[in-house]
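Q: What structure does this chain adopt?
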Amino acid sequence: MKRSTLFTLVSGAAAVAIGGAFAYSRATRPPVINPKVPQPAKPVDLSRYLGEWFELARHENRFEKGLDSVTATYSRRPDGKIQVVNCGAQNWPDGEETCVEGRAIVADEATGAKLKVSFFGPFYVGDYWVLDHADDYRWSIVGEPGGRYLWVLSRVARLPPAEFEALMQRVTELGYDRWALRITRHK
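A:
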């Protein structure tokens, strides 16, 4: 076989593989639930944001599919980056908890409200925008600029009904369909 023919076959196979991976990633992404994602409403004091958060609701996504009892814990690493530990359980309420660790860097030093996260390798590709939070850091609404992901977080596993309703109203004010969210169950 000629060298040019072999090159054409190999490069063609590589193009098909890359194209297939691209098509798969696009097919498994959740739909856009907010085509006009707002900028974060206010700055974030990361020292106050660090700690444990309970996920109250999310726009369902493939990497959390079916998880309940979801928590996210953020802490400062010795190198200045942020340690991220996300945990959740399948087959709620008796499912075994699994956790994944990642790290984050601040992408917007002026506000502290935009971070980049990485759970795989050295690349910080995931956007993590704190779109709004309570002044006392009791709750937080997190999204990303593509409008495909949204998380509603709280320092407690369950908010009083009136406070939860007010939080869902804030989700709507930010341009998201609250009815597209999956409520996360906690024990």
